[in-house]
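User: Sequence in, structure out. Go.
Assistant: Echoing your sequence, followed by the structure tokens.
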Amino acid sequence: MARAHVEDLHYTDVPLEQAAAGPFAGAPWRVLSRDEETGAMTALVEAPAGYAVDQQLDAGCELLVLDGAVTIDGDEVAAGRYAYLPHGDSARLEATGATRLLAVIGAPGAGGGERSVVDPESMQWMVRVSEARTDSGFTEPILHVVKILRRDPVSGDVTGLSALPAGMGQVTAEWHDPADEGFMLRGDMLVLGPDGEPAEMVVGTYNWRPESARHLPKYTHTGNLRFFRATGGGFDGTVTVTYVDEPRWPAMLAAYQARFPFFG
């Protein structure tokens, strides 16, 4: 079956198991989501010091090093850096110390292109403001602050980092054709969960939103930094987004804001 809609899955709530195959064979990992139809998946790998594997990849693989470091054919990928290995690539991956990394593994046979390693700190933020408009006539500005780490030349899938300043959010709900997923790296965020209840995202929280799944609103008290992926594009103004009013949100937002002091 396709992946379920989740908004507040913390990686520590997922059992640790050993990867039986693939680019991280033999390493402990936590599978955050898996598409049983295609085999595509996202996992948090917890590689011990000295872990090493030689692989010829049968699917494209993206990774973001959360802490520690790995080498790919001897080239270091330090904490905070992103790497992409295409389908068919042969690589030796080694953990130079205890390392946690987020791994996005495509469907077998998918994921072409060239190997790349990206240091997000060397990139500038891209800032865009769009307008949400609902059928009731309500409008609000939507702030997009992103760094695009990779755009697949065939599928159009986009991988990047997104940031939201403290005290900002979105009061409308939305849906769009691309599925999207995210992993919270810093900060907090309140969203409306798929069950209609408020869902809190903290550091280490993962979300998967299927195609055309209604999601949001959102709000952050401290600000946040998230790793994100959007299948088929998005985050550049080329995807149509439908916005709707969410009458339940004001009460949820007020309750969340009341938990935090204004100062400090």
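User: And one key feature?
Assistant: The two ends are 45 Å apart (CA to CA).
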